[in-house]
């Protein structure tokens, strides 16, 4: 896809799909609790590629996806399993 001349590519990013994905939320109004139902992700491991751009003249420091978000999702899943 063509990119406007005002943009400069600063990074190429890869995101891999997680093992489990959110299938449903259940909110209990009586206890003000939100529960998440996770199921196996049929696309687990699939890589998605992105390019990151900044406006010309802005700092050109590269960007990176945080792996921490995957760790948080895994911890949430473990919490749901363990209760």
Outline the fold blueprint.
Elements: E1 7-16, E2 20-28, E3 33-40, E4 47-55, H1 68-82
Antiparallel strand pairs: 1-4, 2-3
Distance linking N and C termini = 46 Å
Main sheet: strands, sense, barrel: 2 strands, antiparallel
The poorly predicted ranges are none
Binned strand content: 35-45%
Q: Overall pLDDT, averaged?
A: 84
Q: Give the CA-based shape.
A: elongated
What proportion of the residues is helical, as a percent range?
A: 10-25%
Structural domain tally: 1
Query: What is the radius of gyration computed over CA atoms, rounded to a whole number of angstroms?
Result: 18 Å
| Continuous helix count | 1
What's the count of strands? 4
Major beta sheet, strand line-up: 1-4
Instruction: Classify the secondary structure makeup into a structural class.
Output: alpha+beta
* Secondary-structure element order, N to C: EEEEH
What would your notes on this structure say?
The structure is a single chain. By secondary structure, the chain is of the alpha+beta class. It has one domain (7-82). Helices cover 18% and strands 43% of the residues. It contains one helix and four strands. It has one helix at 68-82, and strands spanning 7-16, 20-28, 33-40, 47-55. It has a two-stranded antiparallel ribbon with strand order 1-4. Strands 2-3 form a two-stranded antiparallel sheet. The radius of gyration is 18 Å and the shape is elongated. The model has no long low-confidence stretch (mean pLDDT 84).
């Amino acid at each position: 896809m063509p990119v406007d001349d005002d943009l400069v590519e600063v990074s190429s990013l890869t995101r891999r799909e997680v093992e489990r994905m959110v299938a449903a939320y259940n909110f209990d109004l009586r206890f003000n609790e939100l529960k998440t139902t996770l199921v196996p992700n049929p696309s687990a491991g699939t890589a998605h590629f992105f390019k990151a751009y900044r406006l010309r003249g802005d700092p050109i420091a590269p960007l990176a996806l945080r792996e921490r978000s995957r760790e948080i999702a895994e911890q949430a899943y473990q919490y749901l399993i363990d209760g």
